[in-house]
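Blinded run. Sample ID left blank on purpose so nobody reads anything into the name before looking at the predicted structure. Input follows.
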Amino acid sequence: MISIRKLSFRTKINIKNIQHTVAIFRNEPANWIGVLLVCLFAYLVIAPIISILLNAVTVQTGDAFRTHAAAGSWSSYYLSRTLLSAMSKLLLWQPLVNTLSIATVVVIGTLVVGVPLAWLVQRTDMIARKWFISTLIVPFMLPSWTFALAWKTIFKNSLVGGQPGWLSALGIKTPDFIAYGYLPMVIILIIHFTPLVILIVGNAFKRFDSHLEDCARVLGAPLSMITFKIILPLIRPALLSAALLIFADCIGEFAIPYILGLPVHFNTLSTQLYRALDSRQNGVAAVIAAVIMLMGIVTLLLDVRMVREAKRFVTVGGKGSIQRQTKLGRWRYLCAVFPMSFVLAGVFIPLLALFLSTIMILPGRFDAANFTLNYWLGHHLTTVAMHNGILLTKAFYKAIANTLIIVGSASVTAGILGLLVGYAVTRSSMKSVSLFLRQVTFLPYLVPGIAFAAAFLSLFAVSHGPIPALYGTSVLLIIALIAEKMPYASRSGIVAMTQLGKDSEEAARVTGANWFTRMTKIVIPIQIAPLTTGILLPFISGIKGVSLFIILAIPATDVLSTYSLRLIDYNYDQAANAVVLVIALISWGGTALIGKLTGNSLADGLEK
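Blinded prediction complete.
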């Protein structure tokens, strides 16, 4: 009898708990929205990563004979082949060494170039300082492979077929190590990522209190001691953060090694992963992808730790702090030579070289008869597969349409989901849901794009239950791009919703407005600027991105970036360079549009 009463009492408690939970979900939509988003991102982010990791330890279809095991069974074959076999040096270790070597030298190079530039534009009265603030960051707005194609246009030699580079056409023989491989890749990546150092370190210089320098000078400290004992230690968190971010980006860089590395068989982890997938070595590709993921995650987790430790380096002195500019005197004109040289190398020369290459019949000849607009607007060209100029080619407009549909749909969806993530994170009473959404939507940022694409391919290449195989469809590209760009959209949404109080929404609730009405009539109109940013940032990044599309796209779903790379493979250099110029124009214009809509730009952080 007592046991029955105890059971009845427990049943009543459980029923009350269930009723209480249901009431919470009914009265606070952020809870059920959060749960739905948890399920969605668990499938779009975590499931692909788990799938690619499983591919590394399970026998793939077609490998039963060589592994002596049935397809789908557990096996260490791919781990052993990639890490320990006679082929492991070719498959993993040499590309790993190449990747680490490039990333390390690029980090050092960007700091050597970027820190002085940041100091000149932020802490001196150098001539044309404000103009340089805006112009020096342009190389970071452009697709990284813009510079690779410009380099190839100038330095290409006879090692690769097709038209020669400008120097070769002028009779100047370009050595292979200058035309392709390690050296040009390092130089180009330094040019591309130096603006990131200027942005991060420049902001650190901006917050630096000049009183510290003044006190050191009064005490008789020489300039070298002030620099190495005061300034550099206090901006160390910014230096480390920039270094780690650039290192992580170099690990996943694909287009530059693809254009300049493959002709001389100089492989990095990203190109080796692509080659493994292209040759149907899915198990080996899974191991390489896992290595890339691990490197990216460790690097960016170190960056998160650096950000936390940065709180120990307080460089703002409160109301009495000042940021005094160094007077260069007669040197203010001469010092401008350094940033101007960088602008020439990183902006004017690459873009001019690409444009001139699109209007030249023969490369390297600058007489008037050699210039033409046929590669833009011409008919009946002599090339085998392209009979019209790029602006009269259907495939070009199909690539534009695919780009707008795929990237546009993904960006709009990511922006809306980002706002919903912000709503759930800030409004949900379930702390576990909020914490999970914060972490899972940031996770794609920790995984280099080429590895994330491989993860999606491993999950969606075949059907799973009611979900059909999506490889070769635009749907796969859209959902992969949504997942990859969620770090941008979710952080924009979380910041926006954190700044929005509950008062306006509660007032609407009291008047009887349902959740959908509150979102469409109150929340979204108030947060239209962050929502726009959450859409435009993924759009710009997606327009110039290539790592994700090169793995998942097929000719029927070509976007502008993959279309240009296919033209490169066919040695249609003029057409490829024209497409890249269009991408660069869209990317730059989109970045400027964000500045107009939000009232901020990348350079604003450097201005006083």
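Unblinding after everyone has recorded impressions. The domain at 88-318+328-372 is CATH 1.10.3720.10 (MetI-like fold).
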